[in-house]
Amino acid sequence: MTNIKPMVTAIIPAYNAAQFLSATITSVQQQTFSDWELLIINDGSTDDTVEVIRQYQETDHRIHLIHQLNQGVSSARNLGVEKSKGQIIAFLDADDQWLPDKLQQHLKHFQSNSRLGVSFAQVEILNQAGEPTGQVSSSRLTNLKPEHLLSENPTTTTSNWVVRREVFAQVGGFSPDMSYSEDLEWLLRVLCTGVWEIAGIRNVECRYKTLHI
Questions:
Q1: What CATH number is attached to the domain comprising 24?
Q2: How many domains are contained in the chain?
Q3: What does DSSP assign to residue 158?
């Protein structure tokens, strides 16, 4: 990696993701905002995940491959945050996609509110074949309180998160020993600081492949 610090670090945890990783990486490359680095954390994959990533690295110096033994998605995301250089951290799962103006829209959102710690948006739901279902998330976008995280997941998916770096410095990373709802637990910690707000944009900026259609 170079010493130049980009504005945004995108982090993709990847475990045996060769089948759909190309579309995911391409959705980052197609962003209208281009000052980013992409850290792909290979979480002990045994398929062709590494080969797919290296093909993209040959033509795009902003893409970086980091290896770890298989430890799960929380550890992979935490390693990505540790290695990141951006002021803004954006997560993306290896089978999801961003719309082209995602980063641009979230950066504008941060500029409008200095207390905004986590920005998210509406999400388009895909089926397991990667085809649109016609469903769009309809969760609350503003005035989020800790109790809202106990009954719903307003952000739908971590692929929808864009986060100020300072938030991680204050609340720490994901709990690596949690295999379920680790995202909601982290968001709860953020809201309980009383310092940071979590708020959404009324635009679809992420395409999420769900297991349950």
A1: 3.90.550.10
A2: 1
A3: G
For 51-67, letters b (16+ CB in 10 Å) and e give ebbeebeeeeebbbbbe
**What is the full per-residue pLDDT of the chain (213 aa) written as tens digits?**
556 899 999 999 999 999 999 999 999 999 999 999 999 999 999 999 999 999 999 999 999 999 999 999 999 999 999 999 999 999 999 999 999 999 999 999 999 999 999 999 999 998 877 778 888 888 889 888 888 888 788 999 999 999 999 999 999 999 998 777 899 999 999 999 999 999 999 999 999 987 643
Question: Taking the model in full, what pTM does it have?
Answer: 0.94
Q: Which residue range(s) make up the domain with 18?
A: 8-209
